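Q: I'm writing up a methods section and want to include an example of the input and output format. Could you take the sequence below and give the corresponding predicted structure tokens, formatted cleanly so I can copy it straight into the document?
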Amino acid sequence: MTSCEPCSRAVAMMTLSAGGKVVAESLGGQLISRNTEEPNQRKLLNVVDEMAIASGTPAPPVYLLANEPGINAFAAGFSPRDAVLGITQGAIEQLSRDQLQGVIAHEFSHIFNGDMRLNIRLMGALNGILVLGILGYYLMYSASFSGRRRGNDNSGAAILALAVGLMVIGFAGTFFGGLIKAAVSRQREYLADASAVQFTRNPAGIAGALKKIGGLKSGSIVRNPSAPEVSHAFFAQGVTGITQWLSATHPPLASRILRIDPQWNGKFDVSEPPPLTESQPPVDELSAKRRPDMARNMATIAAGAAAADAVAMMDRIGQPTQESVLYARSLLS
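A: Here is the clean output for your methods example:
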């Protein structure tokens, strides 16, 4: 055994607890400016603001994983105060607005329900168990090395037995603890799916996003080397491999879809991406130049109308009409 595995776990935990910004940047995320004029990014920020209102949580900064063609997203951070949202380029290009709402609402559920803090605590518990195994490994290595120099020694055998016991407890505990953590994570994904439906009032949105993932060649895979450390935070399974299959942090796509759409026919969505024009219609140069003049004219008209109304109201003071008298009587009766 080498120290690479425990080191990577420790780095993963420190990364997650350092704040969502660190996680997003470790995955190659780029902060999306609130003043962006790129249509897909503008659509994304509008959706984030809408879901923030629906969930009653502050709108977090949004990071774009520009080099990821798969459909995925994540919420990261130790608390809502330092939380961020991350989303892949494939998601904002391949998903419709309703589907994007479903994905973002799912991630807001993780923030709202405190799933980020729960994940870090579970990782801390598993790393604590893993330390026992690491301690046993180095104790066994030390005992075997010193035993060769001193010859047969009962105390050396006792230390060796203790080391083996610590290794069994540590590594077996970490393995089965990881399975428990994955099971908890899968249940939290079902809860987040249900919350997304509650926030959007549109089951077809998140169900459509999951169907789109199943029909896309790149699926939900995140190719960044740091993806395995935060795979449990993704919207859908972001990494592949035998170890991920044994301790999958996300339920199968079909199972998630059927819980939202029991009438699903089992076919994934292989349709073309939605047109870019749905987020904001194009504006020709002449119209853009005329807009300031039109705005000034409308403001002048509105101001004139307001002034006329004010003068008319002043003229009516002390001279109520019959309709005003009848209305006043109805209020007093």
